[in-house]
Amino acid sequence: MNNLEYHGEVRKMMIILSKASIENVYAAFILANGARMEGIDAELFFTFFGLEAIHKKKLKKLHVATVGNPAMHIPTLVGAMPGMEAMATKMMRSEMEKLDMPEVEEFLGILKDSGAKIWACKLAMDMFHYKKEDMFNDIDGVITVGDFYKKAEGFGTQILFI
Fold it and tell me: pTM for this structure?
């Protein structure tokens, strides 16, 4: 190891978010926030549909996925019925409110204030024809996958895909 001693401690969390359902977004945000609270660097990379979590016009409209979500414990046919997704989303938001969990935009601000970095994927931005101005004001930039991997270099970095 080139005279470097590595003890296995986590020094940086690199979290990739590819889906913007409420449960995925909050999982990523809570993990990033927990890392920052422990003094661990945290960077979030939003790609494909995960970009909706930082898109100004879409981040307030995130919902629970009722179809293809085994944790819902409902048949796919039932989950696809009109109104089911809205009902599940309302229930989830109600439970989160009881726990005083911040809304998505507020949580993004909390993450930024804690020192977390927020990156948008250039390929996905180009594919969906989004511009940086469409995104949450405080993103750190629009980067390529290669840029993301360069930011992940070093001992103690963990990459998590959600």
Answer: 0.86
The tokens for 92 are 């989830």
Q: How many domains does the chain have?
A: 1
Per the structure, the complete domain to which residue 77 belongs is given by 12-161
CATH of the domain at 93: 3.40.1260.10
What is the rounded distance in angstroms from the CA atom of residue 47 to the CA atom of residue 120? Answer: 6
H-run or E-run covering 22: helix 22-37
Task: Specify if 7 maps to a domain.
Answer: no
**Distances in whole angstroms, Cα of residue 5 to Cα of each of 40, 59, 156:** 19, 42, 11
Question: How many CB atoms neighbour CB 70 within 10 A?
Answer: 7
Asked if residue 86 is part of any domain, the answer here is: yes
DSSP string, 44-63: EEE-GGGGGGTBTTTGGG--
Torsion, CA 94, CA 98, CA 104, CA 109, rounded to 10: 160
d(CA 82, CA 50): 24
Angle at alpha carbon of residue 149, lines to 143 and 24, rounded to 5°: 75
DSSP letter at 102? P
Residues 88-110: tens digit of each pLDDT: 778 877 888 899 899 999 999 99
More confident residue, 91 or 122: 122
CA dist 56 and 140 (Å) reads: 15
